Amino acid sequence: MPYIPKEARTPYDPQIDKLVADLTNYREPKPGEVNYIISRLIWELFDHAPSYTKGNELMGVLDCVKAEFYRRKLAPYEDNKKGIYGDL
User: Fold this and answer.
1) Dihedral sign from CA coordinates of 71, 44, 4, 60
2) pTM
């Protein structure tokens, strides 16, 4: 669940904003570049305290990120396009 208290976001938001700005200032990032960034983050977190439990938790995080992205971003985008171009 990405819905954490606003004060818990404070240490991360400036760094995330800078990373996004660095990625998008001159061009759209390639999917491989985004994959690399996400992979590095997950792998570093795993390597910090490796265990099956930690790996399982991180896999769950990735699944939930994927599901929430679909629910909040991609599905509404597709619904809008369906409204523009018509249903199947």
Assistant:
1) positive
2) 0.86
